[in-house]
Amino acid sequence: MTRRLILMRHAKSSWDDPRLDDIDRSLNARGQSNAKTMGAWLKAQGYFPDQALVSVATRAQQTFERVAQGLGMQPELRVIDGLYLASELRILQELKKATGQTVLLIAHNPGIGEFAARFAQNPPAHGDFLRYPTCATTVFELGAANWSEVRFGDNPVLSFAIPREVDI
Question: What 3-state DSSP class applies to 48?
């Protein structure tokens, strides 16, 4: 059976409280709505993660919660310190430890955008793919037989979407 990666940048967060540490920032109203929309889009496309690897940041965990609401299901959740502001190499390192068939990974820019660009066999010709805005989501088919063997550049892109273009 084919393995898939659903790569998502966290949704839009709030900057309302300057006293909060970056890791503690919450989603704003638009971010909450967008994350739920992307979950509904994944469901409509038939992409159902059985495992989620999520950054320890509040906004990433809240993104996961809203995506799960939109999906109408709760994948196994692993909150990972190493995904907070991770480089593309660190994201790859954490992904190699995955155990699910379809894995949802939620992290941050710039690392997640750089990861997406390097991970793709052929990046989609979408103007926002390289920028990887908040809640951008790419679905990859794995080019390797298992997670521990996954490499950059071997993975076909099945879908790419951003919230404002999703019709749910």
Answer: coil
Q: Are strands 137-141 and 51-55 parallel, antiparallel or unpaired?
A: unpaired
Which pLDDT belongs to residue 18? 85
Cβ–Cβ under 8 Å, residues 27 and 11: yes
Task: Please list, in sequence order, all residues whose beta carbon lies within 8 angstroms of the beta carbon of residue 165, skipping any fewer than 6 positions away.
Answer: none
In the numeric block, the tokens 């521990």 are attached to: 148
Sheet holding 102-107: strands in order across? 76-80, 51-55, 102-107, 4-9, 137-141, 157-161
Residue 19: per-residue pLDDT: 87
Tens digits of per-residue pLDDT, 56-101? 999 999 999 999 999 999 999 999 999 999 999 999 999 999 999 9
Q: Residue 1: which pLDDT band, with cuts at 50, 70 and 90?
A: confident
Of 50, 63, 62, 48, the closest CA to residue 8 belongs to 63
Q: How many residues does the chain have?
A: 168
**59 by DSSP, 3-state: which?**
helix
